[in-house]
Request: fold
Amino acid sequence: MNLDEKIKQELESEAKKLDKILAHEPGIFSMLANAYKGALGGWLILVGIFTFLITLLLFWAGYQFFLVTELNYEQKIFWGLVMIFVGMVQIALKMWTFMEMNRQSTNREIKRLEMSIERLVNTLIKTKEA
Reply:
């Protein structure tokens, strides 16, 4: 077995280990559900309702802009600008939701690391005393 084959075998072994670790990671829906259980869960519900209302307004503005033919140019420009602005607001709200979801996930991982370090320290103290 030459060096290239050893490297390839080692990389495949590491990839399998990573696949096992990533298989236990929660999916996006469970991460989103956990975000609603967090400290800002009430705000997330409020933002979700507001995002839904903004989406309805976005569809209404799109309908007015693209499908209503009785509008003059000023009204078309108005509904076009409303559609652009509401789309940007919707993007901002969804970004905040996903950032909160990411924050909750990161906090959970930090807590796991803290507990692992605490267990390791306790194990080291016990072995040192023995």
